[in-house]
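Bumping my old thread because nobody answered last time. Still need a sequence for this structure:
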């Protein structure tokens, strides 16, 4: 594995995070298994449709928990050749599945409750034992929510936060169920079915939220404006960065990926420009712990300007032939040549042997030839002649 790949793996593979996520999910599995059996069995025996609906909701939680366990296990794997940014998107995919599962469950409960509301008088009365189970379920799910959210926020896992709020939605729905059953016991029999419908609506709402957020991440929606602004400031404050453009961000589970074009002095060397880019990358990673990786592209000028046509200019070989022709056959071969593509034109720097520059008349004649050749030239703006006096 390359150094960059190892660094990415280190950012996505967190044993503590993985173990904590597994632990709270297994706790959720145990709680939901007990509640599912209690709610569905007692709901049928006590003729409480809202309790049955809440039991189905708990059953969907069980399936959701197994999705979370699988996604958390896959998401904790290190980066590899097929997934160079790690496997964090498995968490996002799991959140999307959770959303779809909630939507489907909620809609089915709404349809069922609506159908039964058409024939309320024909339904058998609700037994009081259903109220006790509903209150016990409410207490269990509220406690589960508080425990899961505390751990999920510490780990900064969107998938686990989603699952925690899923538990809170369960607690809220259990409260509605308890109220509906109590009203039915007081003689308002339609309240049990109304509670079932409200539970269905709450599930649909939460499913939409989780699914929408996960989908936004999967289609690479960027970070919010405040976060992007902070990253932009960090990049601009890097020594050597003249300007910044094309700053782009996207989520990768609990982390973020950033890429940007930084503009540096057009006259510095490639190696110095690379060093500035590496420094900019390091500063962002240090100042923003949520950033997994930063890709920095170095520009000599703003390549977003509409009049930019650098790609249409000749390449190095053609330009060197043109420069050599302008210098003339009496000029020795250049020891080194630098080409600067700036403002849709090219500026050339050639380095000649020291002996050639010793003759002032010869140098003056060369300057005259260069000025004449560049007057009105299509793409060459300047040719700078330098004589090397230091050791090579």
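Sorry it took so long. Here it is:
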């Amino acid at each position: 594995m390359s150094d960059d790949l190892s660094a990415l793996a280190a950012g996505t593979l967190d044993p503590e995070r993985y173990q904590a996520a597994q632990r709270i999910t297994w706790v959720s599995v145990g709680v939901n298994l007990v509640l599912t059996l209690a709610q569905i069995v007692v709901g049928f025996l006590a003729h409480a449709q809202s309790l049955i609906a809440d039991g189905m909701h708990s059953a969907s939680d069980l399936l959701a928990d197994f999705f979370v366990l699988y996604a958390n296990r896959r998401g904790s794997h290190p980066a590899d050749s097929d997934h160079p940014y790690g496997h964090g998107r498995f968490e996002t995919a799991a959140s999307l599945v959770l959303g779809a599962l909630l939507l489907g469950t909620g809609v089915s409960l709404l349809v069922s409750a609506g159908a039964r509301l058409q024939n309320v008088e024909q339904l058998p009365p609700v037994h009081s034992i259903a109220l006790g189970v509903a209150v016990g379920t409410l207490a269990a799910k509220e406690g589960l929510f508080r425990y899961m959210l505390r751990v999920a926020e510490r780990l900064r896992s969107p998938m686990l936060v989603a699952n925690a709020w899923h538990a809170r939605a369960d607690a809220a729905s259990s409260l509605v169920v308890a109220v509906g059953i109590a009203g039915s016991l007081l003689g308002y029999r339609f309240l049990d079915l109304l509670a079932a419908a409200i539970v269905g609506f709450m599930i649909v709402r939460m499913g939409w939220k989780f699914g929408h957020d996960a989908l936004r991440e999967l289609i690479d929606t960027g970070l919010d404006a405040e976060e992007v602004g902070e990253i932009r400031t960090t990049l601009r404050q890097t020594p050597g960065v003249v300007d910044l453009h094309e700053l782009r961000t996207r989520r990768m589970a609990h982390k973020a990926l950033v890429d940007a074009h930084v503009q540096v002095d057009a006259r510095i060397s490639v190696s110095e420009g690379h060093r500035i880019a590496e420094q900019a990358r390091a500063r962002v990673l240090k100042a923003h712990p949520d950033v997994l990786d930063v890709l920095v592209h170095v520009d000599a000028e703003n390549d977003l300007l509409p009049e930019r046509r650098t790609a249409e200019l000749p390449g190095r070989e053609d330009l060197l032939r043109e420069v050599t022709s302008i210098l003339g056959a009496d000029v020795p071969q250049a020891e080194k040549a630098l080409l600067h593509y700036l403002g849709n034109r090219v500026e050339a720097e050639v380095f000649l042997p020291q002996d050639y520059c010793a003759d002032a008349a010869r140098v003056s004649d060369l300057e005259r030839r260069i000025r004449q050749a560049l007057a009105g030239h299509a793409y060459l703006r300047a040719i700078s002649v330098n004589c090397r006096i230091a050791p090579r």
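The chain is about 60% helix and 15% strand. Let me know if any region looks off to you.
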